[in-house]
Amino acid sequence: MTPTATPNRMAFTPNHDEAARQGFVTSLKKFINFEVEAALAERFESHAAPAYAARTGAAPTNRKEASAALADDPLFQLWATLTYHSQNLMWDSVQDTTDRLLENRLAAFQALRDATPSGGSLHLSDELVVKAPVKTTEIHRQPGGYWREQRPDDIEQGLNYTGTLELYRSAKGMSAAKADDGGSMGRFVAEVAQRRAPDLSPTAILDMGCATGDQTQAYKRLYPEARVVGLDCARPLLRYAHGNAESAGVAIDFHERDAADTGFPDESFDLITSIIMFHETSAEQVGPILRECWRLLRPGGLVVHLDIPYHAHRIPLVKQATNDWQVRNNGEPFWTGFVELDMTAKLTEAGFDREQLFADYESSGAATYFFFGGRKPW
Ligand SMILES: C[S@@+](CC[C@H](N)C(=O)[O-])C[C@H]1O[C@@H](n2cnc3c(N)ncnc32)[C@H](O)[C@@H]1O
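Above: query sequence and S-adenosylmethionine SMILES. Below: predicted holo C-alpha cells.
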C-alpha cells in the first residue's frame, strides 16, 4: 500500500468552483503575458518606434523613450488595462478561498504554534519592522500589502500570498514554482551555492525575506543537521510560515526582523540566502542589507541572493517599457531601480572580497535568474 502523506494543515486548498475561477485568471494572465505581449512587441517595432522616430528625429533607445513611444498606442493601452484588471481578478479569486478557509487555518496555526510538533520557533518583534516600500505600497497590489493585520494572530496575508504564488508564476511560464512542490527554488539556490562553494557544508543558514517559508524548508530538508532561520519583516507571513513548517515536520526558527538590522551576532551563519527579496526593498536598503550579510557571515561562508534578471542589456526595449509601467501601476516599485544598480560595486562597498564575489545569471529550466553574493575568505 502506498503511504499517504500527512495533509498540510495550513494548505491553501481551493474547492471546485474556486479552482475553476482561479484557473480562468491564470489562463487570462498567460494570454496577456504571451500572446498580447508578443503582438505588442511587433507593434512596437512596426508602428510605435518608427512613429516616435518620425516625431522626435531619433529612434527610442531607453525605457523612458520606449514608454513615450508606446503611451498613446491602443494596443499598449489594451495590454495595460488587461494587466491591471487581471491582477484585481487574481486577488479577488484567491480571497474567496481565503475567506472560506481562514477560521480553520487560523485555529491550525494557533495549535501548531502552541505545540510546536516539529521543534521550530516563531519570534515576533515588539514593534513593526516594515520599511518602505513594503510599508507604503501594496506589493503586487495585494490588498493590504504583506503586513496588514485585521484580527489577533492574523495569517490572512500568508494564505492570500500562497494562493497567488502558483497562479502568478505559472501565468509567467514558470510552472515549477508551486507552494507545495517541496521548495524547488530553494533547491535551485542550494545547487548554485554548492557549485560556488563545493566544500561548504552549512551548519547555520539564514534565509532573508522568507515570506511563507516554503523555500526555506528546502534548506532544512537538504541540510537536516543545520540550524535554519527564516527572516522577514511581515508578521502575517511569518505566522503562516511557522504553521506551515510545523505542519510539514520541518524545524525552522522564524524571526520578524529587518534584513538590514537582524540583531544576530557577528559571524552567525555560513550560508545566507534570499529569493526575490531585494527587488522589493529600495536603493537605500540594498547597501545596508549587503553590509549586514557580510557582518553575519562566518569565514569560509557564502552569500547567495537570487532576484529578477530584467537588466536593460538582456531584455528588449518594449519589455523595458512594460516593466516601467508595472513599476508605476502594478505594485512593483523597485523592479527598474533594482536592475539599474551596479551590484558588483554594491557588494564591494559592503566589504565583499572582489576576487570572491559574483553578480551574474543562472538558468533553471526555461527560467533565468540574477544571482549575486560572494564568499568570505578563511
Ligand atoms: C517576493 S517575497 C519573497 C518570497 C520568498 N523568498 C519565496 O521565495 O517564496 C519578498 C519578501 O521580502 C520581504 N522583505 C522585503 N523587504 C524586507 C526587509 N527589509 N527585511 C526583511 N524582509 C523584507 C517581504 O516582506 C516579502 O515577504
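The chain has a mean pLDDT of 95.
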